Amino acid sequence: MPCLNLSTNVSLEGVDTSSVLSEATRSVANIIGKPEAYVMIVLKGSIPIAFGGTEQPAAYGELVSIGGLNPDTNKKLSAAIATILETKLSVPKNRFFLKFYDSKASYFYPLKTI
User: Which backbone phi and psi does 5 adopt, to 5 degrees?
Assistant: First the structure.
């Protein structure tokens, strides 16, 4: 299950977060090649972030996936997410950083109910 955590110093008040979430879900699923039903997106706004010594609009993201990541895919994901952040949140593409984690399935355990 790919999970993309995005944090930005931009306020999400008045932002159509549903469109950000749906576009990010679609992009991650299409680029990694996993069903949208397995993609999770977490979006946090108004997080104190300084990038390059300024607090102008910026964002940081971490994408965790069980397989499906490689240098070419990561480049495509970075470009797609940067475009979404720029068009939806006015975060310039050069003020965004995305970290990738390609995990093994053994690190994740299903939840059991008691």
Answer: -100, 120
Q: Which domain holds residue 26?
A: 3-107
In a domain, 113, yes or no: no
Give yes or no: 48 in active site.
no
Catalytic residue, candidates 2, 35, 57, 110: 2
pTM of the entire structure? Answer: 0.88
Q: Contact, 78 vs 98, CB < 8 A?
A: yes
- Residue 89: CB atoms within 10 Å: 21
CATH of the domain at 80: 3.30.429.10
Q: Which residues of the chain have pLDDT under 50?
A: 114
